[in-house]
Amino acid sequence: MNISEKKMSIKVPGKLFFAGEYSVTKEGNLALITTIETNFEVRISATTGKSIFKTNVGLSDFEFSLSKIEFTKENPWNFALTALKNTLSAADSFEKKSVSKILSSSPEISLEIVSDLGFGENKKGYGSSASVVCGLVNAVNQFFDFQLSLEKRFEIAAKTHFEVQGSGSMGDIAAIMYGGSVFYQNHKRVIPLEIPWATYVVQTGKAAKTSEKIKIKLSDEFYQASNELVIELATAIDIQDFALFKEKLSENQLLLLENIPEGYMTKELAIALNLLNSYPEFAAKISGAGFGENIILFAQNTQAIAEVQNKLSEYGINLEKFKVAQKNN
User: What region holds the GHMP kinase C-terminal domain (predicted)?
Assistant: First the structure.
């Protein structure tokens, strides 16, 4: 197909941490993360005139030229523009044919981000900025047929996210870029996991700004204990021992409650967590930074799901099943 007629879209998952979310912010430490299928989509097509970014989440359209991408750090499209610029730069050094030659013979592009992950105070906590970065890297790579490997695309996305945000473990990038569920070691390795139990998310409707929370100072003993629990949880998943998994998930939750400042577990999170973990067939834990947002729930069997859905709804808390996103290649 002539690139001037090319049009495509890709779906991008979100992520939910369920162990190691604070520990993994320090290089070399471990976390367990799963992806969640969403309706987040990146659409890319050739266009006449200037290139343009547009979205449905309240940002104004932004026009630019592919041959000279210029913007400031304050630009609300910073994540997307940096992802585009870094992907083109990486492809230029990777490809034998200069990207500048490819672009000179190509039209400008329209990039549209369609998101149901929320924005600002209404974010769902699924890693929307990481979804933007991974989605842009994958869409641009596919549109221009750069043939960058999954490992290279992860490297570009991780560099971009850290460059813009200035902090973070890149665990959300690893999960979203690789898909499925992963055992992640900060800046070192990504190992696929297969979770054998049904997965649900409990949404409290209160957004939390993760970047502020991950700056909390923690002891060396905390990092060691967290890493040990991540390994034990990964083992329990591998041998499909739900009782052991629930026990270690509970220990991981307690470790965080004992070390993270007051406010980590909101009233809504406490209600949901106590209810869910009273059922032996359920294992639940606050996902991510806490201070609002989500609980991730694993169910050995699902007979009582409707019952707990009704009980949680009385407090304005939503429980819904989610599908783990497919692995990428």
Answer: 235-317
Question: What pLDDT is attached to residue 121?
Answer: 47
Backbone angles phi, psi at 137, to 5 degrees: -60, -45
pLDDT-wise least confident of 117-126, 214-223, 314-323: 117-126
Q: CA 206, CA 121: separation in Å to the nearest integer?
A: 8
User: 287: which strand partners?
Assistant: none
d(CA 243, CA 248) in angstroms, rounded, equals 9
First to last CA, the chain: 23
Kindly report, residue by residue over 197-224, the tens digit of the pLDDT: 999 999 987 766 655 556 788 999 999 9
**pTM of the predicted structure, to 2 decimals:** 0.89
Helices 242-259, 267-277: inter-axial angle, 10-degree rounding: 160
Q: Which two tokens stand for residue 79?
A: 């994540």
Which domains are delineated in the chain?
3-191 (3.30.230.10), 195-321 (3.30.70.890)
Q: What pLDDT shows up at residue 264?
A: 92
Q: Which of 167, 197, 190 is nearest to 289 (CA)?
A: 167
Contacts of 306 by beta carbon, 8 Å cutoff, 6+ apart: none
Q: What is the pLDDT of residue 126?
A: 67
